[in-house]
Structure formats: structure tokens, C-alpha cells
Amino acid sequence: MSAILSYPSPARANDRIISLDALRGFAVLGILIMNIQSFSMISNAYVNPMAFGDFHATNQWFWKLSHIFASQKFMPIFAMLFGAGIVLMNERLALKEISSTALHYRRMMWLMMIGLMHAYLLWYGDILFTYALCGLLVFLFRKMSPAKLLFIGFLFFSMASIIYLFLGQSIPYWPSEQLEQSVQSWQPSAAAIQTEIENYRGSWIQQMDSRILTALFVQSTMFFMKVGWKTIGLMLVGMALYKWGIFSASVSKKSYILGAIAGFAIGLPIIIIGIKQNFEAHFSFEYSMFFGSQFNYWGSLFISYAYICLIMILFKSNRFLKVKKSFAAVGRMALSNYLFQTIICTFIFYGYGFGLFGKTNRLEQLVIVIAIWVFQIIVSNIYLKYFRYGPFEWLWRSLSYFKMQTLKK
Predict the structure, then answer these.
(1) In principle, which of 30, 72, 183, 221 could form an S-S bond with 300, CB 3.0–4.6 Å?
(2) pTM greater than 0.70
(3) From CA 40, how far away is CA 365, in angstroms rounded?
(4) For position 10, what pLDDT does the model report?
(5) Cα–Cα distance between 175 and 327 in angstroms, integer?
């Protein structure tokens, strides 16, 4: 059989870029810091910290710290790595003179199916469906130069801000009923809060009443207003960074140090100013939903890049080998670890498990996050001693390649 007609196969373990795996592991662990708020509290508490629970003293400080260092900081890394992965797969198959088009679209189709099941059967906060949908478009840009990818990526990323700022400016012209409904959604009534709590503390079927509506909102309204534009933009930026060698620790240590310093120097003041402005506005819908959200939206992009630089600095060093290996193991099982976080957290907080939904404060949530981190790091390292892929990676690969992959080493 000719090389052109030969069937593609997954990358072998020794073909992997370890720094990419480690960065992916760092991101999948970090993203839980914020996701646990969606698992444990009403959906609005994620965007409006005053919507639910105690927001004073220790809890307020933990929110501030998580907002500065975690909120929207790890999802961009994930999205950028997704874009980088598209280019990487295309390059590897091109060396074998095999087109990556059919394989890519099969991968996105199956990832979309996994995401839909994740969103509607377990947790509305799924990001896999969004990645798959955006990946269908982003694939078309894979051969562009890094400079063009970066420019177009920022254009897409900016679109969400343009939409939000336009909507914020248009509030005075909204019909009074529409504005009232939006404000009630931003700050739910006691009855609405109690209904959501009862649903998630109830049976799996009862949870559907809240989960399906929220998942539909996230995958439709929020996708077209913000998430879709942001994700496409970040994936394109990730393609550019990969082509420049940023993700493979190929750039000089000095460049990474300067990148980390610049990222924190630009991002931190923007986010901190945003916190101050939102507190002064008492997290009102009219301000915080649209104008107030832009500080963290843009500031997080710089913090994410600073995190990337720090991980690459770690890989430029010959020290901390166990730390790098541990992050890489988690990253090699990123899809499985992401889905297992949902399985673990929904069991802790939902009615078919311990039913702690709405009962934990932000400090207690952090303790649970750390416990899950330790568990996933240990399990990932042990598991990969005996198996080639995580269980969900194995399933995704087998479906995408139309061939049962060898799981055991």
C-alpha cells in the first residue's frame, strides 16, 4: 500500500512533546479551581459572586485570589494547546504523506458527541463540545504563518468584547421586561435558588430540570456572544505559539523569563483594577456583566501566557524531574482527568452522591480541589506504567481511527 493510502495511527509515547503534556496537565488541574464553583454552587455564582453564599472575610479573599490567579487563566491554555495539537497532528501525518483532514473531522465529531453526553448527562459546564465545534473551523487555518494566525486570533478574541460592550451600551434602550428578566437571572430570587439546590440535591432525573436549560444556554447564547469567539481566537493563537516553538521549550530561557514578567506586569494590574471597579458597582448586572467582565477577560490572556512561560522555564532546567513527570502524566490523560473531575465532583455535590451542593464555602471547595489534584497525580502516574492511554483517550482514538487501539503496554 502506498504512503498516501496508508491508514494513520496515533502518536507513540516516545514521539510526544513532554513539555506540551506537562502544560496540558497543569491546565487540567488548574481549571478545577474555578469549575468546582459550578459543581458546588448555583450556576450564577460563577459570574456573580454575590449571587449565592457567604461573600465576606475569608470567602471573599479566596474569591479574589481565585479570580486573580485562576478564573479564565487555565481555559485559555487548554484552548491554545488544542490549536497547537491540530497543527502537530497535521505535521506528523504530512511527513507520512497522509492527509489529516478526514481524521481531524472524525476526531471532532466524536469529541462533540462526548461533549454532548458530558453536558446533558452529567454537567452543564462542558467545554469539549465547544472545542470540537470551534475545531471544525480552526482546522482551515492550520497552514497559515504564525504572524497571520496571531493577528486573526486576536481579531476573533476581540469580537466577544465588541459584542459585550455593544450590549452594555444598549441597556438604556432595552424593553423594561427584558432588563428585569436579565437582572433576575443575574441575581436569582430566593425561590429560584432553592429550586436549583433541590434539583441538584435530588435524583439524576430531577437534575435534568436545571442542567438541560443551563447547558442549552451555554451552547447557544453564550457560544455566540462570547465563548465561540474566544475559543477560536485562542486556538489560532495556540497554533502561532506552537509554530514559534513556544510550547516545546525551544525558545531561549531569557525570552521565557521576559514573557512571564511581562505577562504578570500587564495582566495583574488590569485584573485587580477590574475587581475594584466591580466591587464599587456592587457587582450590578448593568456594569459587571458587560463592562466589568472585560478586565479579567483581557488580563487573563496575559496571565495565561505568563503561566506558559513559567512551565517552559521549568523544562529548560534539569531540576524538578519528578514534578515535570507528574504534570506530563496528568496531561497525557487530560481528557480522562477532565471527565473524571466531573464524575468525582458531581458524586460529591449532587443528590446521587453525598449531596453537598450549596453546602460548602470557598475554602472548603479549595480543600476538595487539592485532594482531587493529589489523587489524579498519583493515579495518572501509576496508571501510565501499565497502559498507553487514559480510558477516554483510548475510546476517542479507537473511534477516530476506526480501529481498537492497544491499551496495555
Answers:
(1) 72
(2) yes
(3) 8
(4) 54
(5) 51
